[in-house]
Amino acid sequence: xxxxxxxxFKVGEAFIFRGDPFVILSVRxxxxxxxxxxxxxxxxxxxxxxxxxxxxxxxxxxxxVDLSLETMNFMYRAGDEALFMHPRTYDQISxxxxxxxxxxxxxxxxxxYRLQFIADEPVGILPxxxxxxxxxxxxxxxxxxxxxxxxxxxxxxxxxxxxxxLFIKTGDIIIIRTEDEGYVSxxxxxxx
Length: 192
Fold this sequence. Notes:
Strand order of the largest sheet: 9-8-7-10-11
Oligomer: single chain
Number of strands: 16
CATH architecture of the largest domain: Roll
Number of domains: 3
């Protein structure tokens, strides 16, 4: 395994930090003029599921981890586990809901997700950037409630609550950004 600079890492890549495997959730470069750059990273420990925010210099080098991604079909939840099935081999694996993190509320039976593996051991899930979900409950918009950016909380399939504009109603399909659980837009008619 090679050692590479933090400046060369991208979101979703894994490396060894303080003896544990971590995956990068976000990385931002901040240039300080004569002082050089600093890379602010948000990363998740793949053993403990703890999330850390650290600042690194471009000269900091880390050993990479062979993190493989495999597309699996989500079947169902059983207690504190989520069960997935490989679409070609029909092998089933379980993954702790703790390892899935906050994305667990967006899991939908029958959808494919990319699972992360280290040495054939499932260690997490790489959530898609955006997902489409059906609004199952939306309160009516109140007339005159538009003095500021008018929003309301709706409930989507799976039970998660999302802040949306007032025009969203029950039965609409909306697009959600998984990184911050924010509303993106109403899906086009026909699911496009």
